[in-house]
Amino acid sequence: MASNLQAQHETQSGVYTFSSRPRAVPNRTKYRQTDPLLNEEQSSYGNIMYDRRVVRGNTYAQHILPITSQPDPVEFLKQQEARRRAMSRKRLKEQFGPKTPEPLEGRKNIDLQTEMYLEELSDRIEEVSVECQTDMFLDKPDTPLFIPAKTGRDAATQIEEGELFDFDMEVQPVLQVLVGKTIEQALLEVLEEEELANLRAQQQTFKEIRDAELVEVQRLEERERRLRVEKENRIKQQKAVLEKEKETADKIAARAFAQQYLSDLLPSVYSNLRDCGYFYDPVQRDIETEFLPWLMQEVSNALEQKYVARTVLDMLIQDVTNQRFEAFQVQE
């Protein structure tokens, strides 16, 4: 198998040169190891299609431009990023920086000197507008890209069959790693499944034990609650019985005391009530309240009539006497 193996190191003249001679690909290790000090020359490639030292395609179609013809895209991107950051800082400064407040209606802001001594501002540049007439010209086409003439000589290397890459030999480490990793992963998965099964069995056993303990705890709590409720009920019943007995004893004592106290009180009370008139004879009460007031009223009326009759008689006698006295005086 023949191929054009060229290095991608560009010189000032724009000619490709060899940087290293072809060498056999070393065997890959079983596990991946990341070494930050491993440079590009020490990297190993297992496939020629991914080797960056191999140029694929026609080399005559590639145009190598001088270094000064085009700017470095990385530098150009850095410059654009710096310019963008500067514009952003300027906009932020203009937006959030201290500003002069807007003037009131009918006023305007002017620049004033704040120094202790006045100075004449003579650095203002006079501006003048000038116009000119230009001729009409056709648009100039774009300048073609400058491509320097090719110099130097192309070189090639003949690679015989089996010198650069032997698939049957190179694939063995890869297959060993793949098969080993697959078997190891399978074993790990089997162990993981067994461990998960053991964990599930332990969890199930623990759950059953916990459920049994919870049931027992609930039974004990219910029993304790029933005993507590029964005890409280018994205490309440005993308190009620004691209160009832005490109340009965108090009633019996009060009744005995009342009987003993009222044994001498009743005769005196009855006698006092009789003296006060609460116990009376109905006939006597009727005579005193009905007959005697009527009799007194009738006597009073009779006496009043007699008094009126006597008064009228006295008036008649007085009139007759007065008339006789006047008649006797007239006769004399």
TrEMBL record:
InterPro entries: Radial_spoke_3. Keywords: Cell projection, Cilium, Coiled coil, Cytoplasm, Cytoskeleton, Flagellum, Phosphoprotein. One of its GO terms (cellular component) is cilium. It holds the Pfam family Radial_spoke_3. Residues 210-255 form a coiled coil. Residues 1-20 have a biased composition (Polar residues). It comes from the Eukaryota. It is found in: Cytoplasm, Cytoskeleton, Flagellum axoneme. Belongs to the flagellar radial spoke RSP3 family. PANTHER family: FLAGELLAR RADIAL SPOKE PROTEIN 3 (PTHR21648), RADIAL SPOKE HEAD PROTEIN 3 HOMOLOG (PTHR21648:SF0). This is Radial spoke head 3. It comes from Culter alburnus.
